[in-house]
Design a protein that fits this description.
Helices cover 37% and strands 16% of the residues. The chain is α/β, with parallel strands linked by helices. The protein is globular and about 50 Å long. 47% of the residues are buried. It binds S-adenosylmethionine, 6-(5-methyl-2-OXO-imidazolidin-4-yl)-hexanoic acid (DTB) and iron/sulfur cluster. S-adenosylmethionine binds next to loops. The site of S-adenosylmethionine (SAM) has 17 residues, from loops.
Length: 336
Amino acid sequence: MAKLESAVKEKTVSFINSKKTKQTIQNEVWKKIAIQGLFDKPFNDLLFQAHQVHRNNFDPNKVQLSTLLSIKTGGCSEDCGYCPQSARYNTTVDNEPIMNIKDVISAAKQAKDAGASRFCMGAAWRGPKEKDIGLVEEMISEVKSLGLETCATLGMLKDGQAERLKDAGLDYYNHNLDTSPEYYGDIITTRTYQDRLDTLSRVRDADINVCCGGIVGMGESREDRVNLIYQLANMNVPPESVPINLLTKVEGTPLIDASELDHFEFIRMIAIARICMPKSFVRLSAGRESMSDGIQALAFFAGANSIFYGEELLTTGNPDVEKDQQLFKRLDIKPI
Ligand code: SAM
Ligand code: DTB
Ligand code: SF4
């Protein structure tokens, strides 16, 4: 079998990405050729393998539900080519002030009542400023006290900030690599791949669970998808949660005309994330509105075991709660 079981291989693999940032993998558990081999498998063989891995590690009939809330929307300084919240693009998203704590608590209560177990607060920032972080700490501790798991996605963190969030009660921090190091420079220029890895290290060192994945359907090649999985699966500790987003195309963003990704290729990505990160939750993330019930059912079979739950992601739509509840009923899936 191609997988290099458990082994802590003291092998270092280096390459140069398009921004000339040296990426170093210290612990190559998964080789690129093995990941490529999974992509090349016949679809049914791949799904069978992924489902077996899934069953060996999780209850295949249980899915974790997180609800997102945009606590600070729009006006972002960054140039992420997929994002409707960047101030650089002419989208319908306005620059809004940070939400007040009461409204955040009431949204969290509503999410809990609808059945979510985790509440994820997102901000359209390059990173939190000192003046913001106190308010976010307060939000985290209030949400935690409702009996929900807490998650935040606030951009890049500076030294000491992850520890503050941890002390406030943060369980998960979401920060995505988004794509391969090689394709990254085509999508974002205002922060490097290494900046993202540095934030992820700060989160890991503060003992916060890492939620890290990417987006497919941005015009990347299959090799880029291989290389994204390679980065994620070879982290010293793989992320506890791996969101796989299908690009939600938004008018005004540079990626509006990206070519459509075959949904079966999206399912392959889920299956390969499952095989390469057997103990991680794989999240079927943005893009569900464009997927049929059948494709979503295939994603759960392939090993996806968490979703974003609630009518809105951050600024774009998501299936409504009743629709998801009906789908779960038809598939005999129970929330975690
Ligand atoms: N500003 C922070 C940051 O970039 O880290 C946090 C919020 S940001 C919106 C969180 C993630 O959402 C991005 O890293 C990206 O992976 C995902 N995302 C944003 N826009 C998206 C889109 N149109 N389609 C799919 N995923 C998207
Ligand atoms: C993630 O990987 N996907 C979520 C969450 N982490 C923050 C965000 C998806 C955003 C989709 C576009 C929007 O709604 O603005
Ligand atoms: Fe800003 Fe995050 Fe959107 Fe990038 S993804 S433009 S950092 S809100």
